[in-house]
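Quick check before the chapter quiz. The format below is the same one you will see on the exam, so make sure you can read both the input and the output lines.
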Amino acid sequence: MTPAARREAVAEACESFPISERRACGLMGLGRSSYYYEDRRPDDEPLRAALRQAASERKRFGYRRLTWLLRRRGWRDNHKRIERVYREEGLQVRRRRRKRTAKGRSQPLEAPQGPNERWSMDFMQDGLADGRRIRLLNIVDDFTKKERSW
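Here is the expected output.
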């Protein structure tokens, strides 16, 4: 449970039941100094706008490169704050689209008309009973289906 949620729970408990703030803080596990804490962070909106604009200009930049870009533009915020705002804004490096490749051949391969016209080769591997590996290079004549192994 976040401290902000605990603060709200303490305030709700004090309104709903006749207990003191001290007692409510104890029940919620919240220190009294945390209950009275007021956030003094500067507003993130100017940084958000600058980050959104920089990310739209440079779509392939992540938060680290955007941090350096913003620093060159005069921003002095540290990388942790910029990363937090970057994540809250839902920014991320755009995924690159895959290039389309040729989908197979437009025509099937023609059948060979005679022996030694076309050969196919393939590597095969197997294990022997004693655990050793054996590898074979199989070469096959596509017309006669005669096989040669090395």
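If your answer matched, good. The longest helix spans residues 3-16.
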